[in-house]
Amino acid sequence: MEDEKALRFFEKLKSHNGKTTILTGAGISTPSGIPDFRSPTGIYSKYDPEELFGLNNFIRNPSYFYTFALEYLFTMKNAKPNSVHFMLKKLEDLGLIRGIVTQNIDMLHEKAGSKKIANAHGSMKTGHCLSCGKEYSLQEMERRAMSSKDKVARCDCGGLIKPDIVFFGESLPERDVSLAYEWLESSSLVIAMGTTLAIYPVGMFPEIVLRNGGELVIVNGGPTAMDSKANEIYNVSLEEFANEVLKILEGK
After folding, report:
1. 133 vs 40, which has greater pLDDT?
2. Which residues sit opposite 215 in a β-bridge?
3. Which one from 16, 85, 109, 121 is the annotated catalytic residue?
4. Is 121 one of the catalytic residues?
């Protein structure tokens, strides 16, 4: 059954002649051991989202964020890509997709070898001092947090270091959003994978393709906010589905 869905998915993808943009969310990274945020057992069941990702709250009480970061975010450097990431890398290699627009901050697309990536919510790869603007690597942010008395990463100038991920109320990264719009405006198909499409504004990105007369395909483990607008929906285990698609791609 999964192989039939995978074949139908591949034929749909192929019919759009490379004019396809992929939109990914947390659901593609949970098989790699990275917890999601909004499920009943997700991160927001343990941490208050406003306190965690409100910029003013971060400045006022950075230890709340860094307690969470040491438990979850910095450990992302040890996570490995799964079959979904490798499938998308293969699609890129075959020229079947414009690029990947991801809501994830875990860098797993990069680890899988994908090159055309727009990190719409930023990335944990780097951080910057809020006072002087100095850049720090993920590893250095973790080292500074671990070695400080209050477990907060601070710059040499004494300023707070903030990872380059989008906090509530912040603008999305300009370069990545411009890239996302460029791909979406020139695509006739958008495929949403592992995302509920419920978070604004990225959840609205498929509308760009639909508005231009294109199609929306959803591949997810459960319902999404845009199911009613989708041309095709695959409610599947993403890893199993990706493995079936990989089998097809390996024969191409």
Report:
1. 133
2. 189
3. 121
4. yes
